[in-house]
Every structure is written in C-alpha cells, then in structure tokens.
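Minutes, project huddle
Topic: does the predicted pose make sense with zinc ion bound?
PN asked that the exact inputs be recorded in the minutes so nobody has to dig through chat later. Recorded below.
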Amino acid sequence: MERQFENLYPEARQNEISMRKFNFHTHSLYCDGKSGLREIVEEAIRNDFAALGFSSHAPLPMVNSYALSFEQFQNYLRELEKLRQEFHPHIRIYKSLEIDYIPSVSFPFEAFRKQGLDYTIGGVHLVEESGSRGLWFIDGSSPEPYDRGLRELFGGDIRKAVRQFFHQSMEMLATQKPDIIAHFDKIKMHNKGRFFDEQDTWYQKLVKDLLHLIKEQGTIVEMNTRGLYKKRFDDWFPSRRWVKEMKNLGIPLTISTDAHHKDELDACFEQTQKMLVENGIKTVMVFGENAWEARPLDEKKGH
Ligand SMILES: [Zn+2]
Ligand SMILES: [Zn+2]
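Predicted holo structure (tokens), as shared on screen:
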C-alpha cells in the first residue's frame, strides 16, 4: 500500500510544510456526510493534505437525522484507527466529533473525549428556548425551520432568540471546553438581512462578549468555509469583519471546510489563507503529534 501511494503521488512529502492542506472538520457517511471514510482519506492524499481530522456529529439522545448513532460510535473509532495506521505516514488522521451542546439534552463532552478523541469541536445547531418549550434549529439548507422556531419559540423576538444562541454558546465554552468552537455566528445564515444586521450594536456586543470568553478559555476559532462554497452565505462563519478583532485579542484560528463530501475537503481553503494573510494573521492552528501547534501562513498568499 505504501509503495502504491509513493508511485501514485510522488509529490507527497513526509515532512510537514505549513502550506500543505489540512482539515479538522470533516463529516462522512457515519453521520450526514455523503462519502465514506476511506474515499475521503484517499481524496485527501491525492490533494496533498498533511492532516485530516474526522468530526461526525456526536450521538444525541433524541431522534434526529444527522448525528452518528450510539451503536456506530465504536465502529467509527475503530475504522478511523485502522485508516490512521494504514495510511501513515502519507497523512495524519485524527479522531474527533462535532458535539452539539444542548443544555438539558446533550451528554457532557468529557464522556466522548475519554473514548479516545484527539480533540473536540463544540457547536450549537439547536437553541434551547429558556422555558424548554422546544429546540430552535438554526442550520440546514432551508430557512423554514429557522423562521418557524423564531416565530413559535421566541414570539418573533429576534434579539431574545439570538441572545439565547450566544448564551448557549458561551455556556458550552465555559462548561464543556471544546478545543474548537464551530461556526460561532451561524445564527446569521438564515437571517439574510431580514431580522437584524451584523452591524447592530446589540448584536456586536453579543459577539464581543463571546470573543472575550473564547480568549479567556483558549478556544480555537475555525474560519468555516461551508457557507461560501454552498452559496448559503456570502462570507465565512464567522464573518471576516471579526478577523481583526480576533487578531487583536490573540485568538488562535484554524481553517475548516466542514466538508460533507470528499470533493469539499479543500473548498475555499486557499481563498481563506489569502483573506487571513490580508488581515495580518501570521499563523493558523494545526494538530501535530499530540497537540495543537501554530503554523506560519504563507505570506505570498496575500499578494
Ligand atoms: Zn456544524
Ligand atoms: Zn460540521
């Protein structure tokens, strides 16, 4: 197998070079992704990736259509371990989960972490209304659940609803301590300028409070490209307007494509490098042997 890859991909280098691609937020057939683990790994090697982290949506104790099942969790870890060994040293493969934080529903992140994950990604896709009247689904391809939840759970009060999203995100950081916070302003995706503006003072205050907690907790922020390449939002999650603010606070950043298909592994990756360099960002976080490391961005990308 090793020889086969050396012949097929003569340019694959074993030594780490910062500009080789990486992605630490990857879905597969184990959850709502469309490609199998092996075909994703092979595609990544073909594209000269140095590192690839898999992050299925973590099992949830409720009926849903997108998360890994509890029954499949051990198989997921076993298959990843096998691939990690088989494809070493062509690519570094990591085991992770994108874990939902829903205060009265989800399991503590620690319960997953101790099963042998290399790192965790924490995210809020379902916002719990404070009276526990239901969950507001803020993600997905259609704005319909977003609009309905806003109407039925929050009486159309966008400030109340958005505040709840950020409070839940902050509670997640403080109590669950994920390594990475996923798409921290995804709440804007289905807004599409209808209910609030990212420049609104009250909204900016919520983001800034979150950023200060991110700094305090040492959480890594991913610049998530999925909105861009799926054409759901004309900006990153979080928006580029926050990059300078994060730079000033010294918040560590990484680049995530949140791939759900093998063809999305590096979608908008170079565009993101370029944008970060243009905003004065010098390094991005990459998982190394056993820990996150800051790797220099290629300054040439900015010109
Ligand atoms: Zn997500
Ligand atoms: Zn994801």
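Observations noted during the meeting:
- The chain has one domain: 2-7+21-302.
- The two ends are 39 Å apart (CA to CA).
No decisions taken; revisit at the next huddle.
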